[in-house]
């Protein structure tokens, strides 16, 4: 058993989650890998046990299924070996807002919003009581850009950034580190799974490069890591502009431009 905290990774069967599993295993962390495809998880777990000598548990879980989500919540609440939660599982859906339909939208919100929020809520009390622990939430640059035309997907990722920033404020002083990672287009299965041809996507980042950059941000204890953004000052200016509004938002009167002419 490793003396490092174990890492619970959702969506570890492919793409970004599978590479994180590889990297954390190479760093000597034991792992709990969750996703629906148990065959892929078992194969990855076996390889990482052999290559890195770490302990790897596999949990078959559909994060949109109440019983499976509750099982992972219980594991996070009770298993004191788990010191890092990586909320990575996520998906996109084909179509536009007018064509996607309520069911697909609800499922997307269940996976991209409800599940990571509930998993963070399950582990936060234990981490806060222990005065240590880390939560990594995988958002997306799409959450900064409604212009990209992925309205509900982007909204779920905007939620992830907001959730992460709120948790940083609530848990940071208790010794818990929370990181929001905002990848841009990365070469994974998410494209074909959501009905898009990956060959039409420009500026795709290799998934290994994405995860290695995100881990540089993790090691630096960055609050928000945007691997493709060349100038970190641009996000800092964006966030500073938001904060500059805050003192002006609570007013007893509507702004003059909204008052009916006398
Ligand atoms: N690739 C990209 O361009 C970008 C990706 N992201 C985000 O990165 C994260 C990982 O995606 P990525 O690696 O790209 O895509 P993949 O499709 O390769 O991986 C998605 C992972 O989520 C799991 N998953 C999907 N649905 C469920 C479910 N209902 N319950 C449990 N697990 C589920 C999948 O496993 P299984 O099918 O076995 O359940 C898989 O392991 C997502 O949150 C995505 O939004 C953000 C920005 C860019
Ligand atoms: C699903 C997507 O649009 C993409 N993976 C992204 O988040 O950039």
What does this structure look like?
- Pfam families: adh_short.
- Its EC number is 1.1.1.298, 1.1.1.381.
- With 262 residues, the protein is α/β, with parallel strands linked by helices.
- It has a single domain (6-258), classed as NAD(P)-binding Rossmann-like Domain (Rossmann fold), CATH 3.40.50.720.
- It has 9 helices and 7 strands, in the order βαβαβαβααβαβααβα.
- The chain has helices at 15-26, 38-52, 66-78, 97-100, 102-130, 151-171, 190-193, 207-219, 232-245, and strands spanning 6-10, 31-35, 56-60, 82-87, 134-138, 177-181, 224-225.
- Strands 3-2-1-4-5-6-7 form a 7-stranded parallel beta sheet, sandwiched between helices.
- α2 links the parallel β2 (31-35) and β3.
- α1 (15-26) runs parallel beside α2 (38-52) and α1 packs across α8.
- The termini are far apart.
- The protein binds NADPH dihydro-nicotinamide-adenine-dinucleotide phosphate and 2-amino-3-ketobutyric acid.
- NADPH dihydro-nicotinamide-adenine-dinucleotide phosphate is lined by residues 11-17, 35-37, 61-64, 88-91, 111, 138, 140, 183, 185-186, 188-190, 193.
């Amino acid at each position: 058993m490793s003396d490092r905290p174990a890492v619970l990774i959702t969506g570890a069967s492919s793409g970004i989650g599978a590479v994180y599993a590889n990297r954390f295993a190479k760093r000597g962390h034991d792992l709990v890998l969750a996703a629906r495809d148990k065959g892929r998880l078992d194969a990855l777990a076996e390889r990482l046990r052999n290559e890195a000598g770490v302990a790897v548990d596999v949990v078959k879980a559909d994060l949109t299924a109440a019983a499976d989500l509750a099982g992972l919540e219980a594991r996070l609440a009770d298993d004191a070996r788990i010191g890092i939660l990586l909320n990575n599982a996520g998906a996109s859906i084909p179509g536009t807002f007018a064509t996607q339909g309520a069911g697909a939208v609800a499922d997307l919100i269940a996976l991209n919003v409800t599940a990571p929020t509930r998993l963070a809520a399950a582990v936060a009390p234990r981490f806060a009581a222990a005065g240590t622990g880390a939560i990594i939430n995988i958002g997306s640059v799409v959450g900064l850009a409604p212009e990209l035309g992925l309205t509900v997907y982007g909204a779920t990722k905007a939620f992830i950034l907001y959730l992460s920033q709120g948790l940083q404020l609530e848990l940071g002083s208790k010794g818990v580190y929370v990181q929001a990672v905002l990848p841009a287009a990365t070469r994974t299965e998410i494209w074909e799974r959501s009905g898009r041809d990956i060959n039409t996507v420009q500026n795709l980042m290799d998934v290994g490069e994405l995860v290695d950059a995100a881990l540089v941000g993790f090691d630096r204890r960055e609050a928000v890591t945007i691997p493709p953004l060349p100038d970190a000052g641009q996000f800092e200016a964006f966030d500073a502009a938001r904060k500059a509004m805050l003192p002006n938002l609570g007013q007893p009167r509507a702004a003059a431009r909204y008052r009916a002419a006398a």
